[in-house]
Amino acid sequence: MPPFVSEIVAFFQTALTWVTALAVPGVGLSAGWHALMRSTAQDEMTMQHHSRALRNAVIYGGIAILAGGITSAVLGQFH
Q1: Exposed site from 21, 43, 47, 66, fewest CB < 10 Å?
Q2: C-alpha closest to that of 23 among 67, 64, 72, 52
Q3: Which long-range CB contacts under 8 A does 54-57 form with residues at least 24 apart?
Q4: pLDDT tens figures, 7-63
């Protein structure tokens, strides 16, 4: 494999490792914020908004973490 290809693969592996590692606390903080705001909501509409946002944060965060992990694993096969 040419050296520039292995450098590109290594760069993407490192970048995706960082994205995956930073997604975990990001999802946790976002989910915690929406859970706190849902529990302190004064009206039904605000509570529904934060419930929906909480669900979306967990779903899209899980997708981002899985996608980063899978892509890093696939790129690891090129070494």
Answers
A1: 43
A2: 64
A3: 57/27, 57/30, 57/31
A4: 888 888 888 888 888 999 999 999 999 999 999 999 999 999 999 999 999 999 999
